[in-house]
Amino acid sequence: MWRITLAQVRTHVGRLIASCIAIVIAIGFVVATLVLSETTRVTMLGAVGERYVDVVAVVTSDPIAMGQVSNESGAEPDSGGLADVVDAVRRLEGVAALSAESETFAQVEVPGRAGTQSVSVESVSSASELRWQDLADGRLPNASGEVAASARVGVAVGETLAVTTYDTAGATQGADGEPATLVEEVRVVGVVDLGADPTASVQGRLFATADQVAAWGGGEPFELRVAAEPGADVDALLGSIREAVAAQGFLGTVMSGEQAAENRAADFTRDAAALTTILLIFAGLAVLVAGLVIANTFSVLLAQRTRELALLRCVGASARQVRRGVLAEAAITGFGASLVGVGVGVGLAALTSAAVGGSDSAIPLTGLSVPLSAVWTGLALGTIVTLLAAVFPAVAATRVSPLAALRPTDQAAIRSKPGLLRLALGLMLFLPGLAALVYGVVYGQVLLAVGGGGLSALGTILLLQRVIPPVVALAGRTVAQFGSLPAALAAGNATRNPRRTAATATALLIGVTLTTAMIVGAASTRATAEAALLSNYPTDVIVSSYETELPDSLLGQLQGVDGVATGTGLIGTEVTGPDGQPWAALGVDPVAGLETARSADGGVPQEGEVSIASWLAQVWEVAAGEPVTLTVESRSVSLIVEVNDASESITMPKSDLRQLDPAATNRQIWLRLDDGLGVDASVRAVDEITDVAGQAVSTASVAGIVSLRQALNSILDTMLLVVTALLGVAVVIALIGVGNTLALSVIERRQENGLMRALGLTRGQLRGLLAWEALLIAGVAAVLGVVIGAGYGLAGTAAILGQVGAVVIDIPWMQLLAVIAVATAAGVLASVLPARRAARTSPVAAIAG
Amino acid sequence: MRALGLTKVYGRGETSVTALSGVDVGFARGAFTAIMGPSGSGKSTLMHCLAGLDTPSSGQVWLGETELSALGDGELTRLRRGRIGFVFQAYNLLPVLDARANILLPMQLAGAQPDGDWLDSVISRLGLADRLTHRPHELSGGQQQRVAIARALLPRPDVVFADEPTGNLDSRSGAQVLALLRSSVRETGQTVVMVTHDPIAASYADRVVLLADGAVAGEITAPTANDVIDALRELDHGPDFDIGSAADSSVALRPVEVA
């Protein structure tokens, strides 16, 4: 059987190309994700753990334990710290060098720059084997008065820095008993390159000798790094260090250098792992689609080989041999394609690393780390998916009866006895999948929802294969009512060969469903997120002053600013809450407030209501809908609580506040900018508002919430773009499947078409017939796909954003209609070329096969 | 090889079609038998049942001591590897394999090694020595049939079934194929059962079994083509019917003298 299988693969390579491409793309995606993830991890580890390279042991004190000891004994612990164990460890055999690290903080003035910078100061080891810093220029300090600086500080070698520290050594005291500040000038002797350390750009760092750091208030060392003699037994050394420190009553941990590095990197790699998971979900989707494409392709291919399979059975191939042959073919194809896919994935990762890592981005990617696990995973996944996809077609192939070989002119369709099996399997996949999806959506479990979505999608496709041929026939008959004969013929064809109709429609259905899910999901996500943003940040600009009151004229002035549409003023006072504590409260005119805020849920209280933040509701122990009494001196008012996190602590109607405190003054102004103002125009408006307000009240603060919203919106747009691109990979795979299936099924019908031509159908009529069939099938598949895709898109939005806020359903009808039109046109187009060839073939040649 | 009370009914109730009704027939070992009959006589169905490709509605089929209707699909498959050989009218060969691989196919499926000398003798008798590395689409119709016959003969099966083997061939190639079948019967004692509608092909056989309306209608031993034609005419139209005496037809049909 092997020889036959190999011969089949060799001969039909062209027909298997499409499946191969699908696998290559999907596996490439998976492998690229895994390789990039590993590269990130290694880069991170390298950058963050640089200090632990060549370090055999790291000893860290445990401040919590020490704190417990001091609490119990009532005094600072005089032992159990690192300083005590230094000598004990240094004397151990096998220890080559030891370095106690300490750090402190300082303010530096850099020549040529105004203001001061906050920097951290770290000690530099005196032992050369424990000096981990990479120098961009100069050298590391060897004595007090010298420092090396990280690039972020912005100094060059030879310059002088003025360093201000607190003298915690207590040598001098300031007038109020606080430690005095010391100002010292130090010389910069080197610039340190911190490489890909993610914290490098947050704050500048200085490196100085241990003595210098101590003089600047360094305190106890926080870490002991130990270097071993070359050839020393690492484990034994670790053990003896542990014993030595324990003997000293040390409270802390001793761990190996690698462990310390990994611990440090753990926080950063955790975030990277989350991103990897998301990417892998999309990659998994691409793999699923590739599997579906392959299943479709194989079933079409095998249907064309009915006669050959029957012949094999006639000359003595058992059902098991036939099945094994098909699966072997699938395995060879899958493995070969996976091999290429792994290569593509690694290449893609290398490109990404070179492009992203080189630039100044926040994503740490240096070089390329290809874990062997990624290669194995890619190979195994691709081969297994291809095999699984080929199982159904392989089993169907065994059902070919040997008799089919004896009737060469009879296009024996593979019996649909598996029809019932397919139905059962479809339901078995669909129902649990749907349940998981709904559960995941309702309870915000994204992974469960995704898994449920995938399962139910598989089930849907299986079920639809039974549904599609009758629906196509119905559509054809309906159109035929309008007097179109080709449509009626096409409808007949669809029912005569349900397997082919279903296969063609399925391929298109997958693509359309994915695209629609993408479109609807993106639109609804954007609408939901925007609504959530607006209800959390309903006001465009808030001008407030807590000390001085805002003049009455300010509102009018601000409303005159270019870009401001409307505004309203709020008065404020201090009220006493039900807990007896004083709280700041604001009063707003309900009608004007609603006009200015962009959301009805935006914390604008209506008559008789008071809007408070949820944390305050917890403090006051009240719930929404309950009445609460607020008092100012002897006056009190009872209002119904409305909980809204957009509210700034307490907001009530203006009239009620004035009732409580007739002397309440203007405290805030809410402004609403013109609709449709771009980012730049908004910034200009906010700047002008700041100027006007600052002139009226110097301590006024202006919060340009609109800028925050715009920033969040642009992040959302970027994210949606990325998601769309990732889903696009799966759509491309589906499209390949469509083209392939349509081309194969027209080739399959050479005999049938030749027969029709021989019976009197002209070329034009044949082309018209084939086009009508394609139109009907593609049309039905497109409509079904849009409906199902919309459902999944909304489910996706609900799963991801359901916990954030109420889901806003936004279905872009025009885009969906465009998808239906494009998909139908694509289906017709994809069948046009083979149809022309079919029509041109002479009937006799076609029938002879 | 013999069959007893073979009946095959397709469909149910009112739409049922009886393809075979109570056929009793036997085929001698080492003989060349032809099954003949007009279309719709059930000859193809009979062959399918005899070869174990189709299950009869009732009746039994014996291949030597083995009763076919008692066997499952796996056992029937094994029969087809070594004890039953096939030659069809067309599409005999796997297009992806060359001639040699096609010939060896049933033995490879059985996992058996062919006898080298026997293989060479079959190939040379069928004149295929220079065609072994060609694929089916590079062979003429006659050559393809010869490859099919080689494949059928190689395992030295109990019986070779040939279904209209000359149907697609020109008369010269057809004669060649029939002569090869007959010589394999004469020289190696192979049992061959052939289904045909062609009287000339039938005349190559030792015995012709006539089938009409699903039942055995007669038998001719040591047939000539004329004998067969006469017998067929009787079957179709009853005895003494003379085609040539249809006076008012404008086209006179006359039986053609066959050499």
What is the H/E order of chain B?
A: EEEHEEHEHHHEHEHEEH
Mean pLDDT of chain B: 82
What class, by secondary structure content of chain B?
alpha/beta
How many separate domains make up the residues of chain A? 4
Strand content of chain A: 15-25%
Strand percentage of chain B lies at 15-25%
Overall form of chain A = flat
The low-confidence parts of chain A are: 409-415
Could you give the distance between the termini of chain B?
32 Å
Alpha carbon gyration radius of chain B: 19 Å
Q: Indicate the overall shape of chain B.
A: globular
Summary?
The complex is a heterodimer of chains A (849) and B (259). Chain A is built from 24 helices and 20 strands.
Model description:
The complex is a heterodimer of chains A (849) and B (259). With 849 residues, chain A is of the alpha+beta class. Chain A has 24 helices and 20 strands. Chain A has a nine-stranded mixed beta sheet. A six-stranded mixed beta barrel of chain A has the order 3-4-9-6-8-7. A four-stranded antiparallel beta sheet of chain A has the order 2-10-1-11. In chain A, helix 2 (13-48) packs antiparallel against helix 10 (372-398), helix 11 packs across helix 12 and helix 12 (446-480) packs antiparallel against helix 22. In chain A, 44% of the residues are buried. Mean pLDDT of chain A is 80; it is low at 409-415. By secondary structure, chain B is an alpha/beta fold. Chain B has a six-stranded mixed beta sheet with strand order 6-7-8-3-9-10, sandwiched between helices. In chain B, strand 7, helix 6 (171-188) and strand 8 (192-196) form a beta-alpha-beta unit. The longest helix of chain B has 18 residues, at 171-188. Chain B is globular, with a radius of gyration of 19 Å. At the A-B interface, helix 1 and helix 8 of A face helix 2 and helix 3 of B.
